[in-house]
Each structure stands twice: as C-alpha cells, then as structure tokens.
Design a protein that fits this description.
This protein is an alpha/beta fold. The chain is 39% helix and 22% strand. It is flat.
C-alpha cells in the first residue's frame, strides 16, 4: 500500500482506546489478510473473535485512510473501531517486513478463505378477460435476464415483446400507459390501443405486478446496485415480489430466459443439486488438490435464494448463495479452478468444508484420500449416577475406536467427518437440562430438575444415545404399575354413588401425601423409598380433573369414602369411564350400560297411544324413559319433521297414572305458533289425555291455572310464561320445552323464566340445539339438566371433544337420511340473476356510501359501537337486491329477482308444482301478493300477525290440496309448520344463519312427504347475497362438532367478514 502507516497515524485515525484493543487482536494473531490489491490500493481482512468482523481499508484521493468494518459499533465511533486498528497495525507490520508482497502464498489465502466461507454464520453483504370482450387479444413475450450486481450476485430483469414481435424499448412508459388506459406507440407499424387490444388473464396478472413494481421502484434504487440500471427496456424484480412473479410467469406461454447470451424457453425450476463437481485428489508433494468444475456457469441470484445454471433455476438457502458468490470471487482472484490444500489442514478441511460443499454440488474424494478420511458412524454414550445427592452425567462420542469427550477442547489426531448435526442436537439437549458443566462432565443438585431430566429429557435422549444408569439412578424411577384408581360403588339407595381413591402398589399411609401433591399442582411426589412418582400421567390428570370438578377435594385428601347423589356424579363418570381410572362395580356398570343402551330397561310404548311409531321413534321414547328413570334430563334433537312431538306424547301417555296419582300435571312450553299444534297432536294421538291451553286474557289464564290438577297437560307459550311466571310457582311432573333454542341466550327473560319452573323431569326439544355458538348448548342444558355441565365460565374452557363426550348420552339426534330411507330426495340449488340497470346503479351508489362509512369504523372499538349502523346498511343492500321498492318511495322500476320469480312460478304452476315462498321482508311478500292478485292467482298468506289457531287451519287446508301457493314470512313460519303438501320451496332472500333457511325448507321436507322436494335459493349475482352464501357455507353445521362430526364454529359477524362482504 503506497501511503505510509505508523503508530502515530493509526492512533490518530482510531483513537487511543481502539488502538490498544486492536493491538491485542494483532498480538493474538486474530487478523487474517484475505485480499490485497497493490494497484487499486485496497486491502480486505477478517478479525477473528467470538464473532468474525470484516474490514476493508483503502487509500482516498488525498492519501487519507478510508476504512469500513462490519461490526455494529463502528457507526458510534468518531474514530475507527478496534477491528480497523488491528488491520492497520497488521498492514504496518507487513510493510516493515515486506509481508504485503503480491507474491504472497495464494493457496494459504484460499484455504483460509474457504474456512471462513463455511463458518457457521457466513455474513451476507449489505447490499380476466371479460366474457363478452371483443377486443383483439395480444400475446406478450417475457424475456428474463440476470444482471450482475456489485456484490457478486445477480438480479433478474424483465423485458417485453408485444405481440411477440415489437420490442418495448421504454418499459416504464409502456406500463404507465397501460395503467392509464392510454395508447402506446410501439413502431411505425403498430400502436397499442386499450380500446382495441386486451391481454389474456394470466398475462394481465403479470402486467399488473410489473405496474406495482414500477410504482415501488424508487424504494429500491439505493439498494439495487445494478450495472445495467439505466436500461429503459428492463425492469428488475424486487426480492419481495419474486415468489409471486415466478408463480405468475410459470402460467404464461411465452417466457424466455437469457443467460450468457443463450436463450432458454420457459422458467425451469429444478429440485436437485446444482451440477457442480468438487473433486479431491492426492498431490505430488504430499498435499491435496481440490478441482472445481462448473462454477463459472453459475449465476447466483442471492436476493431470490436461487442460482442459475444453463437456464435452470435451483433453490438454495441464503447461506449457500453467499458461499457460492464468495467462492466465485476467490477462484476468480486465483485465476484457476483448483487449489492446493496442505496435508496438515486436510482433517479440518474435511470436517468443516466438505459438508458445506455437499450442499452445493457433488463431492468426489480420491480413493487414496478415502483411505485416510475415516467415516465411522457416531455412537453416543451417556453415563448416569448419583453421588452425595447429586445427579452426575458423563457424555462420550465414539467413532469406531476413537472416543471423544465433547466437553474437552483438545481435538483428536484422526481424520474423519464427524456427525456434527447429531452431536449438536445431543449437546443442546444437555445444555437445556439445568446441568452445571465442567470438562469432566455434568452435575446437578436440584430435586425438581433431576425429576424433569429423568422423566422428560432421558426419554428424548434414548433415540440419540446409549444410556448406562447405576442402581442409584434406577431406584429414583418408580415402577409403571403405580396406577391411580377411583372405585365407584352403588349405594343401597338407587340415586347415590360412593367414590374411594387408591393407588396400586403405594402404601395407604403415603396416598394422602400423593393427594396433597396433586392439590399443590406438583409434577411428582417423592415416595419414602426415594423414587419419584410422576403425577403427569394421563391417569393422574384424569384424577386431578375429577377432584377439581367434583368439589370433594377435602374428603379425598383425608382418605375418606365420598357419597354423592347420582345426578351430581354422572358428569364425572361420563367423562372418565372410557379411561382407566374408574373401577365400577356391577351395579354401576349396569347403570352406565343402561344409559348407553336405553333398550336394556325394556320400557313398552303404551297401547293406548293412537299411533304406529317407527323404530327410531320407539328408541327415542325408550331413551326419554331411561333418563327419567335415573332422574336425568336430556335434549331430543332430532332433525325437523321426525316426530319429536309424537315421541314426547308417548312419554306423557306412559306416565299418565303417575301424573294423576301425584296430581302433578305436565307442562309444555312452546313458541306461540305451536301451542295449538301441540293441542291438536295430543287430541290426535292420545285423546284420553286431558290437555288445556293456558291462553286468552290474563283473567282467563289465571282461572285456568288456579286449579290445574284436573288436567294432565298444561300448554303455554314462552311469552305468556314470562308474564305469568308467578302463576307457575308450583311443582310439575315433567317440563317439555319445545323449540328449546328459544332460550339459547342464558341472560334473557325467557331463559330465567324456564329455569324457575319446578319439575321432576325436564326435556328440551329442538332440531337446532346449536346455531351460533356452543354457549347455546350450555344454556339449554342449564335448564333441562343443570348438574351435567360446569358453570358458564368453566364451560368455555372445556375442549370441544370433552363437551361432546359429556353430553353424548343426554342428546339424542337423528337425521332424516339416517332413519327415513323412504323419504324422497331433496334437491337444492341456487339461481342467480343480474341486477337490472336502474337497480344496479342504485346498488352501486349505496355500496360506495356504505364502504366509505364502514372504513371509518373498522377498528375494534368503533366497530362495536357502530355495528348496528353497519348491519342496517347491509340490510339496505339486501333490500335493493330483492326489490328497491322495499324502501325507495315511488320506485317505478322492477327487480331482477322479482322477474325471475315470476318466470319460475309460471313454469312450476304449468307442471302442477305446489309452492312455498319464504321472505324475511313482509313488504316483499306484499309486492309478490299484489302481482298474484293482478294475475288472479289464489294463494295463502302467513306472517307474524297471523293468529296461532288460524295458522294450523291454513296449513291443514293447504295440505288437503286447496291452492298451490303459500307466501310465508321466514321468521314467523320457519318453525313448527307442517306443509308436506308442498313440493317446491323458494327462498326469495338469504338469511345470515343457514339453520333458519334449513328450518324453512323442512316445512315441506319432513315425515309424511311423498314427493321429491326442490329448494330454490334466489341470489343476485355480484352482490352481497353471493358473499352471504359463501359465509353460510363456511359457518354451517356447528351442531355436528359436538353432536356429530362437522364444520367450523359459527360466530358473530366479524370485522374480517364485513370487509369480505363489502370487498374492502
């Protein structure tokens, strides 16, 4: 280096402190000169330490020293850091001794460079087409070219040929014109015009990505130091866009890759190794030579984690990309494809460098070297002992006859490739195990850490090491036969059980200590013999859960036998009887089997019942009788139309003598629309049962309820029950809660009212026990069987599979397809329609306004505060889809769905179909009704204002064949109606919850239906209704997760769903 260095100059540019620290690096031989160029007056070096730092020193125009260092502290110094000082001291020394001669041993530098290159942490340098579009489709040819960067890697640039002929010389101008839909002059023969020309969907996707890259290009100008930076015909792919762009380019037809002036068709991605060859041969002077073939044909695209070889892309880790770049630089400086390795360094070379080379290509080692390079497999041994209350561990690595103590720093003389990955895995596990470490081995003096190592770490190590344990260690591990057990016996009284805790093989005197350890949530208990009893097994977890849920912890801790009412204990038994911790005596086993198989108790259907029950209905009756036998409640959750009412009437008939003897009538509570249906069914199937409806004005209801012992069944509605709850302050025999989802929210007045009712037996009837969340199931059970599930908060912590296990015996659900083989087919399909022009304009205006308002509120707090306003806006959009006249006064136009409905009705009526039309908007039903009146088409009509008794009469008349059309409000007529006289169901508008639509369709598709039922959903194309349908599909069948297998959980509408619906 031509400028002069001395101690004073170095202190001046580095400062006293940095000089002293740098001198310490220099004296410890930590400075390695990697590259020296006398002509360019530049020196590159590495300063070794806990972390290697890379230093560049060069001479400025004025003769000053200019230096860079990769250490993070350099920027905080006003003077240069200690690493720069160390390199300057080394340069000064070399100048004085002549050691900077350009004839320095190149092979030593290459060997040193290879060690550095394959160190553990190599440093990275800073560095749709429309369906009716009549425009001419233009093909674009994409030409991808790697362009070298100053760091030694390459970026991929893209150039375009329009119509595969006209080369785009100004790509950014072209992209700008395409984005602005302006013409672009390609040549005298051709001009791109957006009104005349278009692109294929796949091609357009790439164009849009290039436009985005063009907009973001300024962000990359400082970092993408490319030689061909000013080429106006090319745009470079940013690393962040590479994955997406590669995927897009693989989908188009015309792509070329240009490498070293050679064109390759398409982008080919190879999953194999690069076709590089590394060959080690024996040298003439006792050393070894490494020959590298193919390196000059590789272009490394480090920013994309890829390399190019003969037009093929190879994915590499970033570390390997950087190694390839540096390897190319090293070989370029040596002007050779091979270099010499001294024999003394070959062992280290094989262990450190060869594994890295094998990731880059094929490595071949000459047989002469193979004889010296031993490749025995690793056999690790771990020795365990206990001395003076300390756990001691010794670790050895064996390679054939060579034993290595990994904790000693001295190496071994033999040359072989060690299994560093496995060694590191073992050492990492030991390091994480709370051991103290010395060169001689490991030791531990902590009981809890010792337990953790023996019970958790040792099983992990067994697959990696051979373990040799002394008797002292084996005594610390308790035998696997110490299994906890809860013995359950049936008391003489039918409704009590007794529980007793025991552990096989453990003295009774120590069981209290084990229970105390469980109480303290400890992981183990140390027995009197010194061994650890693990409390983390599946069995102990079940025991702990049992004690926690049972509330009998205190009694168990004293080793006492605990007596518990059967109705309280069943929830524990049901969750545990499938495991190994319960020992049931014969009477308890019989009880469990009876609950699982209701037929065992042989309950007979009353011969006074005026109905021929199907097999599944008989089973449902037996299930209700079995639960009542043990004073349990339950939910009959059969699919709609399978006869839940009939099964309930059979139960009522079976307990009629008991009702009359005890003078405790049965109370039936249902929605208002079903009250008269219950009365009618009772008269039909059991006319001998004395039933009464508690309705009318308050005075009439009070008179009926004053003395109800003369009746067997009292029927009322949820609204009337809430008003008259004080009149029901008396015991009932059985409580039937029809459409039990009516109190799915436990905080409502309805839920509180039904909870107050006193009854010996309780049953909920519902086809949809879960609609929106599992809390609804809890709410129903909280009324019909409150002892089954824990409190509301604790229930929320239960896993779904645990809930399913617990409720399984107490929920009976059958689907139509499972039990009614003779039920005809149900065909469901959507019919879409395009909004009419005026309708579309109105929709677009309201959508834009709603989007703007919604964007203001889409953070957590404001979304919650403005959710009602947003949902109201969504309702407006749905009304426009149905018919703008629903809220736009004096709207003179029509509606696409309305016109489509009239066409469907004309077709259905011409083929003799009988039709139910559901809409949630009664005004929409009025619009439909006016048109039917205009065409003199008769129809029935039912909405929320239709009296309950009149509903039954209307349904009966329709089922008997009168009329072919029935207009029904979705909310008012979605449940409780039997309309099997219909064979076609039209859902004019969608509802958020698919279960509501399912209930509506099942008015026709139910027991008694003889014809195929067609369900038609009308949807306005390209609108919120399509998004609603997608939301329905993603949220349906939550019930199946707990009652039977199914889909994901339905939750309230979220911010993400609002964004998806409004496409923002």
């Amino acid at each position: 280096m031509s400028f002069t260095l001395n101690k004073s100059i170095i202190k001046e540019v580095c400062g006293e402190t940095s000089y002293k620290r740098g001198e310490a690096y220099y004296k410890s031989n930590k400075v390695i000169i990697n590259h020296y160029d006398e002509n360019k007056e530049i020196c590159e070096a590495t300063v070794k330490g806990n972390e290697d730092f890379h230093v560049t020193v060069e001479k400025a125009k004025k003769g000053d020293v200019v230096a860079k260092c990769s250490c993070p502290s350099l920027a905080s110094f006003q003077t240069y850091c200690q690493h720069v000082a160390a390199v300057l001291i080394q340069i000064n020394y070399n100048q004085q001794t002549g050691g900077m001669s350009s004839t320095s041993n190149r092979n030593d530098q290459l060997t040193s460079g290879m060690f550095q290159l394959f160190a553990d942490k190599p440093l990275r340098p800073k560095s749709k087409q429309h369906r009716f579009d009549t425009r001419e489709i233009l093909d674009i040819e994409f030409i991808c070219t790697p362009v070298a960067t100053r760091s030694g890697g390459a970026l991929l640039g893209i150039q375009l040929k329009l119509a595969k002929v006209y080369f785009i010389n100004h790509i950014r101008e072209f992209l700008s014109k395409v984005e602005k839909r302006e013409s672009f002059h390609c040549s005298n023969e051709f001009t791109y015009t957006p009104d005349v020309h278009s692109f294929k969907q796949e091609t357009d996707a790439i164009i849009q990505q290039l436009i985005k890259m063009y907009h973001n290009e300024k962000m990359y100008e400082d970092t993408l130091e490319v030689h061909a930076k000013q080429d106006e015909s090319m745009i470079f792919i940013p690393p962040a866009s590479w994955k997406e762009m590669l995927s897009s380019l693989s989908k188009v037809e015309y792509v070329q890759l240009k490498q070293n002036e050679q064109l390759f068709q398409g982008l080919q991605v190879s999953k194999g190794l690069l076709p590089l060859h590394f060959e080690f041969t024996k040298g003439n002077n006792g050393g070894f030579t490494l020959h590298i073939d193919g390196l000059n044909r590789v272009q490394v695209m480090d920013m994309y984690n890829n390399a190019l070889y003969d037009g093929k892309l190879y994915h590499l880790h970033i570390e390997d990309c950087m190694r390839l770049i540096e390897l190319q630089k090293m070989m370029s400086r040596s002007n050779s494809n091979q270099f010499y390795i001294p024999e003394s360094k070959m062992e280290h070379f094989v262990s450190k460098v060869v594994p890295g080379l094998m990731k880059l290509g094929t490595v071949h080692i000459d047989e002469v070297i193979s004889d010296r390079v031993e490749t025995p497999s690793l056999k690790a041994k771990l020795y365990l002992d206990r001395v003076k209350n300390r756990l001691l561990a010794g670790l050895e690595f064996h390679y054939g006859n060579v034993m290595i103590n990994p904790l000693e720093e001295d190496g071994q003389p033999s040359v072989f490739n060690r299994d560093e990955k496995k060694e590191k895995e073992i050492l990492d596990i030991m390091s994480e195990s709370a051991f103290a470490k010395t060169e001689g081995g490991y030791f531990m003096h902590n009981e809890e850490a010792e337990y953790n190592f023996l019970y958790h770490v040792v099983p992990t190590l067994k697959g990696l090491v051979d373990i040799y344990a002394t008797t002292a260690i084996k005594l610390r591990i308790s035998k696997g036969d110490a299994v906890p057990l809860i013995t359950v016996r049936r008391k003489e009284r039918i409704d009590w059980l007794s529980f007793r805790f025991d552990i096989k093989g453990i003295p009774e005197a120590e069981i209290k200590g084990v229970l105390a350890a469980l109480e303290e949530k400890r992981k183990y208990y140390r027995l009197a013999n010194g061994s650890f009893l693990s409390l983390e097994s599946k069995e102990f977890n079940e025991i702990n859960q049992f004690i926690k849920e049972s509330g009998i912890r205190k009694e168990f801790l004293h080793g006492e036998e605990v007596n518990v009412p059967l109705i309280r204990s069943v929830k524990w038994m049901n969750g545990l009887h499938e495991g190994n911790v319960l020992s049931l005596d014969d009477s308890v086993q019989e009880l469990v089997e009876n609950i699982q198989n209701p037929k065992k108790l042989k309950f007979a259907v009353p011969n006074t019942l005026n109905a021929e029950m199907r097999k599944y209905q008989v089973y449902g009756f037996e299930w209700m009788k079995t639960l009542a036998h043990y004073r349990f409640g339950g939910i009959l959750a059969d699919d709609m139309g399978l006869g839940k009412t009939l099964q309930s009437i059979a139960f009522i008939d079976s307990v009629l003598p008991e009702i009359r003897e005890k003078k405790l009538p049965i109370l039936v509570v249902s929605p208002s629309s079903l009250v008269y249906n219950w009365f009618s069914e009772l008269k039909k199937f059991a006319p001998h049962i004395r039933a009464v409806i508690a309705d009318g004005i308050q005075a009439e209801r009070r008179k009926i309820l004053k003395d109800i012992t003369e009746f067997d069944v009292v029927i009322t509605s949820y609204p009337l029950l809430r008003r008259d709850i004080r009149l029901y302050a008396r015991p009932f025999h059985t409580l039937f809660l029809d459409e039990a989802q009516a109190f799915k929210n436990p905080t409502t007045q309805t839920a509180r009212a039904v909870k107050i009712i006193q009854a010996e037996y309780r049953f909920g009837l519902t086809g949809t026990p879960v609609e929106n969340s599992l809390e609804e199931l809890w709410s129903i059970f909280h009324v019909v069987f409150p002892e089954l599930l824990p409190g509301r908060k604790e229930f929320g912590d239960l896993r779904r599979e645990d809930i399913a296990k617990r409720v399984k015996p107490f929920v009976l659900r059958r689907l139509k397809g499972d039990v009614l083989n003779e039920l005809p087919e149900k065909i469901e399909h959507l019919q879409s329609s395009e909004l009419l022009p005026d309708q579309k304009s109105l929709y677009a205006a309201y959508l834009a306004k709603l989007r703007e308002e919604t964007l203001k509120h889409l953070d957590k707090d404001t979304l919650r505060k403005n959710k009602i306003r947003i949902l109201a806006g969504l309702t407006r959009l749905r009304q426009i889809c149905c018919h703008p006249a629903l809220f736009v006064d004096d709207y003179k136009g029509s509606s696409a769905k309305f016109e489509q409905l009239l066409e469907i009705l004309e077709e259905c009526r011409s083929t003799g179909k009988r039709i139910l039309i559901f809409s949630q908007f009664t005004k929409m039903l009025s619009i439909i009704g006016r048109e039917l009146n205009r065409q003199a088409i008769p129809y029935f009509y039912l909405d929320g204002s239709t009296p309950a008794q009149e509903r039954v009469e209307l349904c009966d008349r329709f089922n008997e064949g009168e009329g072919d059309l029935f207009l029904i409000s979705l909310k008012a007529g979605g449940t409780g109606l039997n309309l099997t006289g219909a064979d076609t169901v039209i859902l004019y508008d969608l509802w958020w919850n698919p279960a509501v639509e399912q209930q509506a369709a099942d008015r026709a598709y139910r027991m008694g239906q003889k014809n195929t039922v067609q369900v038609i959903k009308l949807v306005a194309h390209g609108t919120i209704e399509e998004k609603m349908h997608e939301l329905q599909e993603s949220k349906k069948n939550l019930i199946a997760e707990v009652i039977e297998p199914g889909e994901e959980k339905l939750s309230s509408i979220t911010e993400e769903e609002i964004r998806d619906i409004l496409m923002i």
